[in-house]
């Protein structure tokens, strides 16, 4: 018969068993250490996220405040005035500005992608004398500010073509390609192995069919990225509508109409912020649903010169 000695009893009592209070404290301490390590690693990212998110939170909270509370020390709404959005939406002209912006953004994006893709494909896959020179000329146009050529372009579209007070002077030029879009698509096309295009030609495909059936499905992330870039540019464009459409309120876009709305409601900051939310919301929604393709396209573009 074995008898327990005091030393054995002491060792058995000192070892924490699963489920005991000391074991629970050890697990809590381990979780706390992991949480602190995660916070330390992601602190910079959290700070940057807060820096970018807080202005949107401020705009949204102000948009649902009453007129008396807006821009006071009270940052949280006393009563949530959701009717502010309805008031802005029913403002005369706001729906027209929204429709004009949507037409401008969608048409401009489609024309830019359709016209730039064949040019980028030719610069990436065709071998012809002066190809690098042509690419340098395309890139050089990106360094030319639009303000430099705005006067002759304005005189051409308004005096010669009679398109003053419309958005057509902004939409039509996009049918002739965009230097930034051509550059990004060309860089992505350089990463497509030539074996795919050569195999398609062996099967009897012409250049157009090869581009549409073989190349385009492979570069969907790049197309999505440049399409989003162009859509955001058109949606937020203020300079172009101010130059060509300012004389006709029926052709105003949201960016230009918002300035007019702000001037008419400069004391109603809650309505101004509600209008700002309605202007930003479509862009945020589009980016939220397309961010995967956008990030993938931007990441993979430019990996080969």
From TrEMBL:
Q: Does the keyword Transmembrane helix apply?
A: yes
Q: Where is the ABC transmembrane type-1 domain?
A: 98-290
Q: Which residues cross the membrane?
A: 35-61, 102-124, 133-155, 167-189, 210-233, 269-290
The chain's coiled-coil residues are none
Tagged with keyword RNA-binding: no
Q: What domain of life does the native source organism fall in?
A: Bacteria
Q: How does it sit in the membrane?
A: Multi-pass membrane protein
Tell me which UniProt keywords the record has, alphabetically: Cell membrane, Membrane, Transmembrane, Transmembrane helix, Transport
Q: Which Pfam families match?
A: BPD_transp_1
What are the boundaries of the region Disordered?
Answer: 1-26
Cellular compartment(s): Cell membrane
Q: Which family does it belong to?
A: Belongs to the binding-protein-dependent transport system permease family.
Q: What is this protein called?
A: Carbohydrate ABC transporter permease
Origin organism of this chain? Answer: Actinacidiphila acididurans
